[in-house]
Structures are given as C-alpha cells and as structure tokens.
Specification:
Blueprint (H helix, E strand, L loop, with lengths): L5 E4 L5 E4 L8 H24 L5 H16 L7 H7 L9 H19 L5 H13 L5 H5 L10 E3 L7 E3 L3 H16 L6 H15 L6 H15 L11 H6 L1 H14 L3 H35 L9 H10 L2 E3 H7 L6 H13 L4 E2 L8 E3 L1 H7 L6
Antiparallel strand pairs: 1-2, 3-4, 5-7, 6-7
C-alpha cells in the first residue's frame, strides 16, 4: 500500500502535504455502513418534515451539533450554557468558548437561509462568523481568510514529528479542487462524496484555526444544498465528540495508506449515530409537545399561553423580554408575566433566577433531551 498525495517543500524546507482528489472506494467495501447512514438520516429528515413546529433543526439540533463539534475540540460550553448565552441576559461562564459555539450556530442559520455562492465562500463565511469577534486581534484579523502561515499537527512518523497541511502558497488552488470535488454531481452516492470532501478539507486545512468545526458544519449544509436531504440535518458533531480518536485516526490512515473505505465507513457510522440519537430526541420532543398541549387545553383560547407553548419548545431557555420580542410587542410585559406564571404553575417552565425584572425561565424537560447527563 502507498501513501496518498504528495509533499511539497515550502520556502523553509518544511514538507507540506498536497492532497490529490480522493478516490471513491468500491461500493461493496462501504455498503453496510452507507445503507445504515442513509436510512438513519433519511428517517430523521422525514420526521423533521412531519414535525408540527417549523425550524426545529436550526433552533435545537444545529445548536446541539455546534456544542458537540466544539466540545470535540475542547470547548466546555454545554447546551444549557449556549441557551443562556443566547437569551437576552447573554450570560456566559466561559465567554470566549460560548461566543464561538454561538457563532457556529449563527453561521448555520445564515447559510440555511441563503446558500453561499460556492463551497469555498460558505467555508470562509463560517470561519468569519467564528473568529471575527475573537479577543486576540491577530485571530480576528484572519477571520474569513485563508491561512497565511503553515499549520501542522503532531505526527511521530513525519520529519520533525510534525505533519504540515497544505502550504499557504498552494491553499487557494487546492480549495478550487476541493470546491469542484464537493459540487460534482453524478450517480455515485453523495454521502460517500461528502465523506471524501471532508477528508480533503481537513487535509488542506485551509484556515488558521477552526478547520474541524468549519469542515463538520459544511457536511449537513452541502447535503441539503445538493438536494439529498430536505433539511441540513446530517450532523456528525456528536459522534465525533464521542469518538474523537477513531475520527482522527481514520482521517490520518486514509492518507497513510491511500485506502479510503475505512474512512468512509467511519464517516457513515458517525452520520448514522448522530441521526439515530437526534431522531430519538425529536420523538421525545413530540411527546412533550402533546403533553403541553393537553396541559394548557383548559386555558382560555385567546391567551398568550397558546402562542408561548410552541415557541418554548424550540427556545426552552428565555426571559420575559425574549418572549416579548418573539410576540413583537403584541402583549404587555404584565400580560406576558402572567402567561409565564401560568406555565410555571403548570410545571412546564421553571424560573431559574430569583428577583430582577428580566428573569430567566427554562423548560427542563426539553433541555434534558439535549444534555448528556440528566438535570434535575
Ligand atoms: N492528523 C490529521 N490529519 C488530518 N486531519 C486532522 C488530523 N488531526 C486532526 N485533523 C482534523 O483537524 C481538526 C482540528 O483542526 P483545527 O484546530 O484547525 O480545528 P478546530 O475546530 O479549531 O479544532 P481545535 O479546537 O482542536 O484546534 C480535527 O477536528 C480534524 O478534523
Ligand atoms: Mg483549533
């Protein structure tokens, strides 16, 4: 077996990797995992389409993916932290971490609403969102731009024990190749193409930092853009977070051996794993919705409570101000307070803070579905 791609010395003699377009494995070598991933993600996609509340994928599942994808890279922000930060209180334990996680979620919202002109533009837009608010001015200045310095990772087999990704001088050209590869449309399975596209993106490592998070977010967006799925719901963040070593080893091994089927199988298992967990969450969310509808049935029909119920399901941590903004000032602060009090009495939401005009409320039942450990 031979390694894949070539190495080109930069001006300082460092050998930088120059990947070629990856090779599609034989279908029979990836068939089982590909079938399982396709089935799981299509099932989740169908369930999202049938769900009675719109945009649940952006409001909850893409946020969960942002938490996990960043968690895989060491961020400590939880789903609860993210929602608190995204409330009008903007509360944050680790401001830099949560800012980046929230930025990943905003980039998802933006690209879901309007596709970028090209995949390269989409990648740079995500990078821009992630780093434009960075505290370090050097990092902020590089937001939304291709790298200008070589980047590498520890690799005991490489000269100097560092594997250098594509040299800055070759990055723009390699990204044109990556864009073409990602956009190509033929009879071959798209999940396999996007697995290989992700491999290529990570080996070019086009931006100074955030390559893992940017690359993983492109997967659901590309599959939706290509019409494979109705929703951008083919996430891998959660599975990568749970199996980071397997993910990185499989990426690395394809380069070392030139054999892509193990990587594609790992990628498909991760898609399947995240989709199955998300489908289970969505089903439980549907049950909670029905329970809330039953619990509020006796509330008078024109009460604000009925407008709050579906909204809280996708925005389970909120303040009175957030609820007022959502209802576009159609109700007074007092009326909103009364409606939220009713939901508190019914056990649907719990007040988190005592005192203060703008108190934080949360629906623990929903939050619990998106946290790895049970909250009381
Ligand atoms: N040996 C390797 N070969 C190819 N790709 C790799 C290798 N090791 C890691 N990666 C990829 O690079 C990503 C990390 O790159 P980068 O630091 O730019 O992204 P990030 O999202 O900021 O992650 P981190 O917070 O760990 O720095 C990993 O998530 C993985 O996708
Ligand atoms: Mg990083």
């Amino acid at each position: 077996m031979q390694g894949f791609g070539s190495y080109v010395p930069d001006e300082r003699g460092r050998l930088c990797y120059l990947p070629a377009a990856p090779l599609f494995p034989k279908l029979e070598d990836v068939w089982g995992q590909l079938q399982r991933a396709t089935k799981a993600v299509e099932e989740f996609d169908r369930a999202l389409a049938a769900f009675p509340i719109p945009d649940v994928v952006g409001k909850l599942f893409a946020r969960l993916d942002a938490v996990h994808s960043s968690g895989a890279e060491g961020a400590t922000t939880t789903f609860t932290d993210l929602l608190e930060y995204q409330s009008s209180l903007k509360r944050a334990k680790e401001p830099e971490d949560v800012r980046e996680v929230a930025a990943t979620a905003y980039a998802f919202d933006e690209l879901s609403a309007c596709d970028a002109a090209s995949y390269v533009d989409a990648a740079l837009l995500i990078h821009q969102r992630l780093f434009k608010g960075a505290r370090d001015p050097m990092i902020a200045a590089g937001a939304g731009k291709l790298k200008v310095h070589p980047n590498g990772t520890y690799d005991p087999e490489a000269t100097g024990a560092t594997f250098f990704y594509t040299a800055p001088a070759s990055t723009a050209q390699s990204m044109v190749m990556w864009d073409r590869f990602t956009a190509e449309d033929d009879e071959r399975p798209e999940l396999v193409r996007q697995a290989l596209s992700h491999w290529l993106f990570e080996h070019i490592h086009p931006v100074p930092d955030g390559n893992g998070r940017v690359g993983r977010l492109l997967i659901p967006l590309a599959l939706r853009r290509k019409g494979v799925l109705r929703h951008a719901c083919a996430f891998v963040g959660e599975a990568v977070h749970l199996n980071k070593n397997v993910y990185v080893d499989a990426l690395k091994d394809a380069r070392r051996t030139g054999e892509f089927s193990p990587w594609v199988r790992v990628f498909c298992s991760m898609v399947a794993q995240s989709a199955a967990s998300n489908l289970e969450r969505l089903e439980k969310l549907g049950t909670i919705h029905l329970r809330w509808l039953a619990a509020t049935k006796s509330v008078r029909s024109h009460s604000v409570v009925h407008r709050l119920v579906p909204w809280i399901l996708t925005k389970p941590t909120f303040t009175v101000s957030d609820a007022l903004v959502q209802l576009c000032g159609a109700v007074t602060f007092q009326a909103m307070n009364t409606a939220i009090k009713r939901l508190t009495d019914l056990g649907i939401v719990t007040q988190l803070d005592v005192g203060g005009r703008d108190r934080l409320f949360t629906a623990f039942e929903v939050i619990r579905l998106f946290e790895p450990v049970n909250l009381s």
